[in-house]
Please model this.
Amino acid sequence: MNKFKVVIEQDEGGIYVASVPELPGCHTQAQTLDELNQRIKEAIELHLEVISAK
Model:
């Protein structure tokens, strides 16, 4: 299992934004931290699938 550092910020409107510095272009956003956690996991999985398909 790979581990990645995830950077979480909150924008002016209260929306949480997560990005993975090691995976350029891998980011997502959500209203809650629970939702954000699930979405960033999915985004990482999809990003890795795309990379391995190349």
Q: What stands out?
A: The CA atoms of residues 15 and 31 lie 5 Å apart.
